[in-house]
Q: What sequence folds into this?
DNA sequence: ATAGGCCCTGTAGTCGGTACAGGTGCAAGA
DNA sequence: TCTTGCACCTGTACCGACTACAGGGCCTAT
């Protein structure tokens, strides 16, 4: 083992494998300011310590929960203790939940409309179709 | 009126105003192959006839209903009578409805998870926050 | 010696638009 | 007649959240 720092962390590929994150996404999160610039081996390879692995898992979990990169940046800033309080985090989360509920409501309306339109369709062999007509506004 | 073709249609700005579509979006739909290349005035300005206006409304309605540009291209191809049947349209719409329902289901799970996590939060003044802890995986 | 594998960098492509720079033509007001 | 302003033209860059790939470097094993 040529590099004396190699014992101190894992490289990008290993981190990706451990977290299930795409290899390139880690580099993207670094450029996006979510992940810190990690230490490097003599060959210039990134070395991640357990704290950085936890941070990546945090990011992945929050992304899974639908937070945007911008929200994450803000949240990580608060989590890092840069002047934020538990109250602030709660406010962000509440706003996010509100957004999710609005999306659900929109999609339900979509579902209802499309289902209604689709039900009129006879699934015939002709090109004439009541769904198309509905999109053209020729029927309600 | 210098242009003898001007009576035959409306220009891009007018079409945008009529349909509520963003001016540039019309050009984008043309480049995306959804809208046909319209006639031009002598000055090179696009001129849309009523049929093209109907087509744009079709596109906007379908986009509103969550269809992607790719799906729309396919649907318009069928609507134009290029070998598709009513049955095909119905199949596409059904697939789309299925997708919407899956999205709704995903978002409901998100809502439940976030609401559960958020409820634990005391909204305190300290940086310590159970929401952050949950994201870090330190609690369920 | 060389082949393979991992890593590095920078850049381009995806989707569905939006925005803007720089240019043209046309009509109305001073 | 000049000029001001508007609508339109083209091409290109930007957004978010990645993903993919070209063209290298370095290390290990055979």
A:
């Amino acid at each position: 083992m040529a590099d004396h720092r190699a014992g101190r962390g894992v490289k990008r590929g290993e981190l990706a494998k451990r977290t299930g994150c795409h290899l390139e996404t880690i580099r993207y999160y670094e450029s996006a300011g979510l992940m810190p610039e990690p230490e490097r081996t003599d060959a210039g390879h990134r070395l991640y310590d357990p704290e950085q692995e936890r941070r990546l898992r945090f990011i992945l979990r929050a992304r899974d929960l639908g937070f945007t990169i911008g929200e994450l940046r803000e949240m990580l800033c608060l989590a890092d203790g840069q002047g934020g309080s538990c109250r602030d985090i709660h406010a962000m989360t509440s706003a996010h939940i509100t957004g999710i509920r609005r999306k659900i409501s929109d999609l339900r309306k979509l579902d209802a409309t499309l289902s209604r339109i689709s039900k009129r369709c006879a699934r015939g062999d002709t090109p004439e179709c009541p769904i198309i007509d509905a999109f053209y506004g020729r029927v309600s």
Observations:
- Residues 11-13, 23, 27, 41, 43-46 of chain B lie near DNA strand D (CB under 10 Å from a C1').
- Chain B has a mean pLDDT of 90.
